[in-house]
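Question (not urgent): is this output format expected?
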Amino acid sequence: MVGTDLSNDPPSVAAPASSELLFDVQVLKADLEVIARTELTALEGESVAATLGDRFEVAFKAGSVGDDGRLRLEGFRIAPVSANKSRRYEADRLLEPGERRESEPMLHATLNLWLDQPLTLIVAQEESLVVAVTCRREGLSSSPQGGTTTP
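Got this back:
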């Protein structure tokens, strides 16, 4: 018998290494003028946070990419950055110079997106804004069927 495993143990399968993911997050005005943009790199399962220009902050936890090319972003949050560094009031207490106020998020949700396809959301508050999120796997691009191919 050549190549036969006589043990009762199931064959071991190496767990796939976490993929490096590249995210492009943009905030646009209603006329589609880009007002803030950032590119982030994260591993599957990693939490990330960054500023988008000097106006917004973004944070989320990248999930794992499924076999079908879908990805979940948990706790996706975009909030305005408070630019006022002088003394200001928050609720009923005075903040010290340089101390930051926790901003109310413009958007806080769990997002499901496909690799290489932008997810676009409209956020209407004081002004209508468009939030666009795109993700691709480092070194790979998605095929039309949702699988992956090497470049």
